[in-house]
Amino acid sequence: MSPHAVDTTTSDHLTDTVLLKRFGITANAFLPSEAPLQHLPDDYYAAWELLAHNLPALIRDGTLRCEVRSLDVLSTDHLKSEAEWRRAYVVLAFLAQGYIWGGDAPAQVLPPAITVPFLDVSEKLDLPPVLTYAASNLWNFSSRGSDFSNIEGLRCIHSFTGTEDESWFFMISVAMEAKAGYAIQTMMRAQEATEQSDYPVIIEALESLSVCIQEVGALLERMDEKCNPSVFFNQIRPFLAGSKNMRDAGLPNGVFYDEGDGRGSWRQLRGGSNGQSSLIQFFDTVLGVEHTTQGNSTPHSKAPLEAKTAQPSFHEEVLDYMPGPHRRFLQHIRRTTRIRELALLPAGSPEQDHLRNTYSTTVRTLCEFRNKHIQLVTRYIVLPSRQASSAKRQNLASASANPRAAEQELTGTGGTLLLPFLKQSRDETSQAAHLDSST
C-alpha cells in the first residue's frame, strides 16, 4: 500500500474495539499487547541474531563492517508471525545503522546482506528501511511485568553502546507510550459523543487527556536520572541519524542500498526521532492542532512562496515513518474528529463555555509538554554541542559540534532544523488554544 494511502474500506462508525484492533492499537496504545520477541525462533537467522547481540562490542572493536560483509543474503521466507517480521525489522535496522555510522566516516553503501532482506521486511511492515522510532522503541524492549509504563521494569533489547544511558533513553519513550494507553479509548468515546453533542462526556475526556499528557511529561522529565547528556550527545545520538540532510555529517548523497548484481538505489531517509511517535501525533490530531512546520535543514527563505506551500509539513511527512496501521489510524482520526470544531462554536451556554475552557486548558497542557521537550533538547543537544569535541569519527555529533554552526542550524536525527522546528511546533500548539483568534 502507498505510504499515503487511506484505508477507505474502514467505516467511521465501527465500534472502538474493532477500529483499534484493525489499526493495531492495544491497551498499551501503539505498543504491542505483549513484549516483543527477543530473538527469532528459526536458527536460519542465527547469524543476524549473533551480530545484533554483539553489536556494541563489534562497533567498539571496529569489526562490524567486516562481519556484515561476510554475511550471506538470507531470505525472509522463514519469517512467519507478525512478531517475527517486527523482530527482523529491529535487527536489520540496528545492523544497518551500526554499519553506516560505526566507523571513522559513515559508510555510503549498505551491502546486499542487509539491503535485500531489509527492503523485504520494510515493505511487509509498510515502513522505510531505516532505524525508525518503531524499531528503536516500540518493538525493542523487554519487561519484567505486564505494566510497560513501569520504566524500572523495562530494558531495551538492542543498543549501539550497551550503556544504561541508551537503554534508559529508549525506555523512557516506551513507558510514555504505555502510560497513555487509556487516553486513546477515552478520546474515541469523546469523538463519538460529538455526534450527539454530549458535552459531559467530551469535557470529561478532555480533562482525562490533560492528566494523561501531564503524566507523560513527568516521565519525560525523568530522562536525566540515568541518561547523561554527554553520553547521549557524543555516543548515542550519532547512531540515530538518518541519511536525509546529512551532508555535513558525511552523507552528501544519502546511502546507496546495494541489492547486488548491479542493482540498487540511493536513498535519503530521516533517522529515528520522537517526532515519529504516533502517540504525540494522536494528541495533536484528536485535538485538531494543525502544524505547517516543514522542519528541513535547508533554509527556504529564498524559495518562492508557491514552493513553500506545496511541500508537506514535517508532521505529515513522518507519517510515512510509522507502522502502516498506526499511520492509517491517525488519518482516520484526522477525518473524523470534531472536538475542535465543537469547541470553536461561539460561547454562550454554560455547557459551551465549559467545553471551550476545558479544550483550551488541554491544548495548553500539550504546549507545556512541548516546552519540556525543548528544555530537554537544550540540555541534551544544544549545550553539549557547544563543548569542544575530541571525537575522531565523522558523524552527527562532530558535525553539530562545529564551532561555526549556530544553534539555529543544529540538525536533529530526523534531518530537521532542530530548535526552529520544535519552537514553531510549540507556538502552533499554543495558538490552537486561543479559540477566539482562530479562523
From TrEMBL:
Binding site for heme b: 373
Origin: domain of life: Eukaryota
Biological process according to GO: 'de novo' NAD+ biosynthetic process from L-tryptophan; L-tryptophan catabolic process to kynurenine
SUPFAM superfamilies: Indolic compounds 2,3-dioxygenase-like
Residue ranges of the region described as Disordered: 388-409
Molecular function in Gene Ontology: heme binding; indoleamine 2,3-dioxygenase activity; metal ion binding
Biased composition (Polar residues): 388-401
Enzyme Commission number: 1.13.11.52
Secreted among keywords: no
Catalyses which reaction(s): L-tryptophan + O2 = N-formyl-L-kynurenine
Keyword Heme: yes
InterPro entries in the record: Indolamine_dOase, Trp/Indoleamine_2_3_dOase-like
GO CC annotations, alphabetized: cytoplasm
Broad enzyme group: oxidoreductase
Gene3D superfamilies the UniProt entry points to: 1.20.58.480
Summary of the function given for this chain in its UniProt record: Produces N-formyl-kynurenine through the oxidation of tryptophan.
Family membership: Belongs to the indoleamine 2,3-dioxygenase family.
PANTHER family: INDOLEAMINE 2,3-DIOXYGENASE (PTHR28657:SF10)
Protein name: Indoleamine 2,3-dioxygenase
Organism encoding this protein: Oleoguttula mirabilis
Lineage of source species: Eukaryota, Fungi, Dikarya, Ascomycota, Pezizomycotina
